Structure prediction request, 193 residues.
Amino acid sequence: MKKGKIIILSGPSGSGKTTISQFLLSKIKKLKFSVSCTTRSIRKNEIQGKDYYFISNNKFISKIKKYQFSEWEEVYPKLFYGTLKSEILKIWKSNKHVLFDVDVKGGLNLKKQYPTNSLSIFLMVNSIKILKKRLFTRKKNNFEKINQIDIRLNKAKKEWKYANLFDIILLNINLIQTQKKIINLVSNFIKSG
Prediction:
């Protein structure tokens, strides 16, 4: 089986990973989103198997012990996220390239495992203040609890220190400009040998 390319989008919560992922998927037909496993609760408007595979902590830990993940992380205490090896293989078998929307450590783990056929992009905003505003907007839409926002902001400060380990750092301030830049980056990477 021929290995496809891997596009890794990482960055702090609120940096725009989901928005940019959806944009790329709508524009590049050869891209397919890698659905991750998580132990967090399903949010309003999310669909099992489309947004995530929502599983229990026990089932997640069982998959860890069976080496079924390409990468996994306990992102917050007792809150796991991971990428199943079978998900990547399934996408490659369909002759598509894999798009990841993962946390920073997960992104770096994927880059380490697939160094020759991956493009890692770190999405960021230019201040914690902007990040906080975006997370509060999410909270108003019932996605976040106040204490989760503080946890995510503290985590973001640590994650920014890893930005230089990614192939590209992309400042996401103006969505239209970010979309233009990322479509060129990803299209050129896919076309390259």
In short: Strands lie at 6-10, 31-33, 36-38, 52-54, 69-76, 79-84, 97-101, 118-124, 168-171. Confidence is low (pLDDT under 50) at residues 140-144. The radius of gyration is 16 Å. The helical segments are 17-27, 57-65, 85-93, 104-113, 128-140, 146-159, 175-191.
